[in-house]
Design brief:
This protein has one domain. The chain is 34% helix and 22% strand. It is built from one helix and four strands; from the N terminus they run H-E-E-E-E. A four-stranded antiparallel β-sheet has the order 1-2-3-4, with helices on one face. The N and C termini lie far apart (111 Å). The model has no long low-confidence stretch (mean pLDDT 83).
């Protein structure tokens, strides 16, 4: 060490170990490029998760509505719908929502729409029923069709 207390750097002695400013900037640029490549994958994964969640909730709402319709209009002739009705007699089709007046129900942020076909002229018969679930943007999330047996 020189007499004045400063260190001298000579060609034989290596400089102190560490990163230069240029190396740090290059490393940051590489990390930024990698992050830009991964970012779309993260965004699409998040969107897919939200879409799947909405789809599952929509299918559950459809299943719940179909189950209620099937309890109200059983196809099994041994089921008694109400105590005031004889066994095997189902409800009439006047209680079904028609295309002119569909039944709309809100389940959270989803809308469940139930529409039945026209009442038949001869009984017993079946009436087609469609249940549609849409989100706030009116996009169909789930859809199901069934038939109900009517006797009058």
């Amino acid at each position: 060490m020189p007499a004045n207390g400063t260190r001298s750097f000579d060609a034989e002695r290596p400089m102190e170990q560490g990163f230069s400013l240029v190396e740090i900037v290059v490393a940051m640029l590489l990390f930024a490029v990698i992050a830009l490549g991964v970012l779309p994958l993260l965004i699409s994964g998040t969107q897919l998760t939200v879409s799947n969640s909405e789809s599952v909730r929509g299918k559950a709402a459809v299943q719940q509505k179909l189950s209620a319709i099937q309890r109200y209009y059983p196809t099994d002739q041994t089921v008694q719908v109400e105590t005031s009705r004889p066994v095997g007699q189902t409800r009439d089709c006047s209680a079904l929502p028609t295309a002119a007046a569909p039944l709309k129900e809100t389940v959270g942020d989803l809308t469940v729409t139930t529409v039945a076909g026209a009442c038949p002229t001869a009984f017993p018969a079946t009436v087609p029923v469609q249940v549609t679930v849409t989100n706030r943007g009116e996009t169909v999330v789930a859809l199901a069709n069934t038939s109900v047996r009517v006797t009058q």
